[in-house]
Amino acid sequence: MAGIHPELGHSNDVDDMAYTPPMRRIIPIVSLALILVLAAAGSVFAQANPEWTEPFPPFHIAGNLHYVGSKGLANYLVTTPQGNILINSDLEANVPLIEASIEKLGFKFKDTKILLISHAHWDHDAGSAMIKEKTGATYMVMDADVGVVESGGKTDFAYGNDSALLYRSTRVDRVLHDGDEVKLGGAVLVAHLTPGHTKGCTTWAMQVTDRGKTYNVVILGSPNVNPGYKLVDNKAYPEIAEDYERMWRVLKSLPCDIFLGAHGSYFGLEEKYPLMKEGGANPFIDPSGYKKYIAQKEQDFRTELAKQKLAAM
Ligand SMILES: [Zn+2]
């Protein structure tokens, strides 16, 4: 089984089926039906987000930081004279889009030396195996998310049993710990553990200099309590509520000028992008938007926690 789920995985499964004797073809058909049932039941995310694979124009954010993601899944490229750092790998289907975005900005996909992720969920890390193969990048993941990444999603506390959300297991080359720095060619990214959404959810912080000014950048891992998340009596993740509390403390302590995140919807990608004008104010410099967003998400968490505590009484 080696970490790759038999029912998912490779597109050449379709070719294999063409040469399979009729009796043995029943099994894949049953498997396919199972996938569809699971998809309808639990994997609303994977099915209902066409924006995840919808191309978005790549653009320069500030300093050596660039947006190379899709409309729904955010990717960032930090460029340096010694090669580049890519944040998030998304779904495997996104990898060609990421590559095209990088090349369109005049950089080389093959110059990707380091691959990082926001957190170990399929929409941010399923393409990592493919990106490692294509670029030889060193894959660095926060300690508490390493097991999930290396199991291809199977050890995730919430989605590990949902076969539609599993992906190719991927070897991690460097295990990160809270506060670790990732350095390349003068760029320094700090890994802040902001757990809860996943156990190793990571918020990336860095500084960029643009037109003579230095800005603090925050790339939010995820502040969301997903539908179905158990905040009370969670056997697979007993400390989940305390971890969210830790996340709010960390997020409120980070200085933020340029507000970004794992999904464009966190920071208003679609609204802010058209406001980018040569020589004009950068719409992504939005410290008050960051504070407002965190406050709203913390409120949502407290409302959900109170609801679940009441229901458990
Ligand atoms: Zn997630």
In short:
The chain is globular and about 55 Å long. The protein is α/β, with parallel strands linked by helices and 313 residues long.
Task: Provide a descriptive summary of the structure in words.
The chain has 313 residues and is α/β, with parallel strands linked by helices. 35% of the residues lie in helices and 20% in strands. It has eleven helices and twelve strands. It has helices at residues 13-18, 22-41, 44-47, 95-104, 122-125, 128-135, 143-150, 240-253, 264-267, 269-272, 287-312, and strands at 59-62, 65-67, 76-80, 83-87, 112-116, 138-142, 174-176, 181-184, 187-193, 202-210, 213-220, 258-261. The protein has a seven-stranded mixed β-sheet with strand order 1-2-3-4-5-6-7, covered by helices on one side. The protein has a five-stranded mixed β-sheet with strand order 8-9-10-11-12. α8 packs antiparallel against α11 (287-312). It is globular. Bound molecules: zinc ion. Zinc ion binds at residues 119, 121, 197, 222.
